Amino acid sequence: QVQLVESGGGLVQAGDSLRLSCAASGRTVSSSAMGWFRQAPGKEREFVATINRSGGTFYYAASVKGRFTISRDNAKNTLYLQMNSLKPEDTAVYYCAARQSSTTSYRLGEYDYWGQGTQVTVSS
Question: Average of pLDDT values for 75-102?
Fold first, then answer.
């Protein structure tokens, strides 16, 4: 199976920034669309951002638009999520995911591979 390994999470204060990374095995990044999702305690996993195969098309959840930026480096098989102006409500476990299709998707059920998750905690 395809392996996705996340890093970059941590404990920060409101207004700070974090950059999450997701390293993919094989040719995962170059051959598929990818996305970021998050899950807060007691809540279901929700969509954050998605990017297409080539990196030229992307979409964001309304709650993070203008603050978060999704990007990818296919040569390095790596997906990124730059998070600025973090808020306490951004606190969650963040997951990267990949789908076999080259086009973007916001639906959890349309992704085939998932990372282990990385904790992001934002204090007030």
Answer: 95
